[in-house]
Specification:
With 314 residues, this protein is of the alpha/beta class. It is 39% helix and 18% strand. The longest helix is centred in the C-terminal third of the chain and has 19 residues. 46% of the residues are buried.
Length: 314
């Protein structure tokens, strides 16, 4: 396992981390709770020291699975990341609310779900344009002083929104999407890196499309989040990704490595990427993903992939 030192947070983080959006279950396909717990534990056994979750992932289900998975593991061995400000209910997502009152409510729920006394990285999940950012930051700084959270993060924030938040407190980390099929936030990630705001990038495997298992246009259920949140499971981007996979197939055959490991290395070998969040559903996926950190792409292989990305305009 490789590790990166997060500058503002002043902690070492594995360059591969557990992402748990899918294991929340809601509109993301079938999930086996026991296998999910085993997968998280296997990732930690392989050297991963960060698990990321959120209350909105399955209305608390993901957080509770993480809490159960980490039971019995020394608390200082694993960094826990969760979020606030995106409210959910049994009736579905209820909207954004990063008010002082709601954050104080949410943190107590997350601590209970996670079975812990403190959260390492606490993110505002999405910008809440109806709540003044000074109110949001006041809540987060209060929680930091109380010892309930250690580091403050923002997810899906723009550069301008981060700068505004920094007027009222220290931002330690950010969480934007990043992968070969989504490079839209490269400039933001590099800017944050120079400021000491390291990144936990999500969507590292393109919700599975970069693993190569899907080769024909999928027919997901109408409510499947992969169809509503991402654009690469639909045309015209889907066909472009399939062309990219052909290039990855050649590298895979030459190196004897699975496509998922190629995608992980393409991301984590960049110095401005802090860690790549990767979802896992079972122990086999956990072992395969972590094994990707035992080797690296050669410069010419990265150049070939980058050239194809530019050619396809992905």
């Amino acid at each position: 396992m490789r590790y990166r030192h997060f500058k503002n947070a002043d902690v070492d983080v594995s360059t591969l981390a557990v992402g748990t959006w899918a294991i929340g279950g809601g509109n993301y396909g079938a999930v086996d709770r026991t296998e999910s717990i085993q997968a998280i534990r296997k990732m930690i056994d392989c050297g991963v020291n960060l698990v990321d979750t959120a209350p909105v992932y399955g209305n608390g289900a993901s957080e509770m699975i993480v809490g159960e998975a980490l039971k019995g593991i020394p608390r200082d061995k694993v960094l826990i990341s969760t979020k606030c400000g995106l409210v959910t209910s049994v009736y579905g997502r209820g909207g954004r609310n990063a008010s002082y009152k709601n954050i104080m409510r949410e943190v107590q729920s997350s601590l209970q779900n996670l079975q812990t006394d403190y959260i390492d990285f606490y993110f505002v999940h999405w910008p809440d344009l109806d709540t003044p950012i000074d109110e949001t930051m006041a809540a987060l700084e209060t929680l930091r002083k109380m010892g309930k959270i250690r580091f403050i993060g923002v997810s899906n924030f723009s550069k301008e929104q981060i700068l505004e938040a920094e007027k009222f407190g220290k931002i330690d980390v950010q969480q934007p999407p990043y992968s070969m099929v989504n490079r839209s936030f490269t400039d933001l990630i590099q800017w944050g890196y120079e400021k000491g705001i390291d990144s936990m990038t999500y969507g590292s495997l393109g919700s599975g499309i970069l693993a190569g298992a899907i080769r024909t246009l999928p027919d997901f259920d109408a409510g499947d989040i992969r169809m509503t949140f991402y654009d690469f499971f639909k045309e015209p981007k889907f066909s472009k990704v399939m062309e990219l996979l052909k290039v990855m197939d050649v590298i895979s055959e030459n190196r004897g490595k699975p496509l998922a490991q190629i995608a992980i290395n393409w991301s984590t070998q960049k110095d401005y990427i802090g860690t790549a969040l990767v979802g896992v559903r079972n122990e086999q996926e956990a072992v395969e993903n972590c094994a990707g950190l035992d080797w690296e792409l050669m410069p010419e292989e990265i150049a070939t992939l980058d050239q194809k990305l530019e050619e396809l305009n992905i």
